[in-house]
Amino acid sequence: MHNVSHLECIKCGRRYAARPDRYTCDACGDAGILDVIYDYDYIARRVSREAFEDNRDYSMWRYMPFLPVEEGSARRPLRVGWSPLYRAEALGRVLQLDNLYVKDDGLNPTGSLKDRASAVAVLKAMEAGADIVACASTGNAASSLAGNAAALGLRSIIFVPKRAPEGKVAQLLIFGATVISVQGSYQDAFRLSAQAIEKWGWYNRNAAINPYLVEGKKTVSLEICEQLGWQIPDWVVFSVGDGCTIAGGWKGFLDLYRTGLTDRLPKMVGVQAEGCCPISRAFHTGRPVEPVEENTLADSIAVGVPRNPDKALLAVRDSGGTMVNVSDEEILAAMGLLGATTGVFGEPAAAAALAGLRKLVADGAIDRHETVVLCVTGNGLKDIANAIRASGELIRVPPDLEYVERALKRLELRG
Amino acid sequence: MHNVSHLECIKCGRRYAARPDRYTCDACGDAGILDVIYDYDYIARRVSREAFEDNRDYSMWRYMPFLPVEEGSARRPLRVGWSPLYRAEALGRVLQLDNLYVKDDGLNPTGSLKDRASAVAVLKAMEAGADIVACASTGNAASSLAGNAAALGLRSIIFVPKRAPEGKVAQLLIFGATVISVQGSYQDAFRLSAQAIEKWGWYNRNAAINPYLVEGKKTVSLEICEQLGWQIPDWVVFSVGDGCTIAGGWKGFLDLYRTGLTDRLPKMVGVQAEGCCPISRAFHTGRPVEPVEENTLADSIAVGVPRNPDKALLAVRDSGGTMVNVSDEEILAAMGLLGATTGVFGEPAAAAALAGLRKLVADGAIDRHETVVLCVTGNGLKDIANAIRASGELIRVPPDLEYVERALKRLELRG
Asked: Under CATH, to which class is B85-111+213-390 assigned?
């Protein structure tokens, strides 16, 4: 990895060699999240807009010069990344935005942006010589790990809390993961996974513990920029749970800027659910992040004890962005709005990002002429229960055309 | 459409001008399915392997010279097609196939190969001047129509039978479709949709009625060939319900052959469920297709009265291929095998194709040195209920490392 200089603690600045199994700072413990520091001069000599235009690898691995993986280790069995960026004119008209784009990361192999992180994790696991990679999660992190591990022939062990929904567990089992259902809370599952990883030397894919995951996530921003013809949008909107995804998004824009591929930076918007907004609260009050309850239907961002608030807050503050909260009702309304105007079916967390954007435009914080990119971080098919809550009414008729006609008249819809 | 010559009835050979709203043969009625006949000399002068290699449109629309849509009408809001083709080494080892590939069409925008058909349907609807496009379906056809229509700003009206699962209806409603729940059977819903389409002049996206849909589906084969470096596989495996998908697959290979881009044709394998195999039975007995019960969990291919058996039978017979039936147990086993060896989560119908392939290899009908492409036609996230049935057991432990250790010892798995 000639492109990587070292790892650096974001708390105390201590430096570490970029070993694949170096996770956190020895001095600061789990709070000492490490940042991958690159040699941008080295990278700058190896990248150009023209070279990217000639690159036929339409996946996240086209950005190999920016990624902390050994060049020799880059077997990449699943096609992760290069998700579509849609110009969303109809949705823009509703929000009164002239230049709105939607990045549909729900079209990744296992249905979420987390595939970008897991694709890096499984390669780092192989670099570390591990046969087994593990995490504690019930959501997108787990399914992306199980899928990417299966494709590479690695074993995955996933710790889930007792309450993990059967459907989400089924996807893990289909991918051949060993699923350990810890008869307790998510915190119990997380703690037990940490102990087991420590004891048996498995590779650790727990978000925010592993510094390389954010680096995979950042490819979403590299793509946004390239897909916009190397223009930087004014605003980029992510929903925020743990904080890792928005941190990754910001890192991507920083990378482009630092290598001179772009000459400006966007403002980052972080959206949280009203019922679970510890990072947003810290952003607005300036006080430290405090644990909160997890009262929202948007399970991908229902994180009461976020593990990466520092990197997330840095992303929003350094970019001159902002954070906003939305209610569950606003999230459900946004799911239908997104689907009906773009044909993109996003999970509730993705709809939360749209709901937040809508608020900021209505408040005048975002101007209608500014360019905005909305990140859809997960596929709505992953959470049908909430899609049912979000969807409107169907029309019940007997099998007789006359009833159809009456119903359509009420809708003023006959073609 | 200079590339299209005319439409031709596959029963009686009558010819029709290729109007966007010409559906079936006047003389033969609904059984008189029309085939789009191209001017292959015209197309051959406009395509070459080199031109495709320079084409940066990585979607089904890169094959525009082969598609029956007006060049001016080609607004294509969703990124349909160019799904990944994976070399499946681990799965190949299990099946004892040296050259196995998996085409993951579950990564299309609404999660299935049907997006290819619906993307054409909505463009033809616009060509026909329609504002509303309609069909009767509960499955992938409906969701792909609703999603593609939403992205283009068209209204969609979907007729579903009373028994349509709530989750599938929710996806339609999220896409803004008008969903008419006919209080009766699928046949009732289909008949009512036909009457309403006739009466109000909506555009008809009912499969096998509309001759243009198969043309969209054929792009899956154009992609397979290009992704294999313009090699034609020995075998291509599809599951079969209505018959339209395998017919489309075959048409794509014919198109390539007729324009001289390739010099051979593959053998097509059609797989049906034991509990619902009218086309397979007709193939093996030589007798006409007869209606059967729909006794299989693979709902995408549970079609007791297939509407396109003729084109499907032609595809299998003309290609020198074969058909095979698989049990629900074999389908469930194949779901897990596919996921655990490739990281691809396919719906039961896709797993059926794998189960059928497995049988043919075991029977010696397919040789281990032959090149085989398995088509995964839909995303497993669409049918979590069956994924739960297909998946193995999770391991329940109290939050104590000792119990984890005991469980792992039983699995002989500690890293």
From this structure: alpha beta
